[in-house]
Amino acid sequence: MTTHRAPAGGGEALRLASVRKVYGTGDNAVAALDGVTLSLAPATFTAVMGPSGSGKSTLLQCAAGLDQPTEGQVFLDGAEMSRGTETAVTKFRRQHVGFVFQQFNLLPTLTVLQNVTLPLRLAGRKPDRNRCTALLERVGLGDRLDHRPAELSGGQQQRVAIARALAARPTVIFADEPTGALDSTSAREVLALLQETVEVFGRTVVMVTHDPVAASYAGSVLFLADGRLVGQLASPTAETVAARMTHLGDAVSARRAAVGA
To answer: What's the DSSP call for residue 191?
Structure first.
């Protein structure tokens, strides 16, 4: 992977520069992302929202190094990771990126503590058992270290996933619909913990969500439509996010209807 550094810009945790992602070729080509440029500062919490097919998942995958953009550049902690061999990008991602998924993605045969230390082992780093235990205590699971995921509730499993994401001290944590499989009480607990990863641990969190209530926990919301950034909302509330999403959905539906007419 290239070691090229982004131009100095005041300490960016994540930057996308004219990122375009095209699937298919010729007449079947579809631009899932169409020239997205954004910059996120360290220790910020950003939600990404948009109608179905807007490019939210593709944005997360390209920003996290899970997929390569067709055009443009992705810088994480100042280092470009949008180019390079798959092995090099994977190594970089294990050192700098954490993930929280909707379905938790815990290994069922491992204990809670083993799940938290696994990313460190995969990265070839010796886990600090005391620190990992402290992280689990921080998320309220200090008495569940030897339990298997099946012995935990959904909310508890997602808290394990947050501890796992923090274990490697990543620059950015990407959360993909982290509350989608949870009840409202567990969802609030998980969202509060994501806020804590920013405010206490100084991590940058990027969360894809369809839920205006979840988005209201973020410091700002980015809106996507048809693969393009079409707006941003600072200090969001559930009401302002819902209103913006309704307006955006109506606009997208009208535009698609006009194209199909």
So the answer is: H
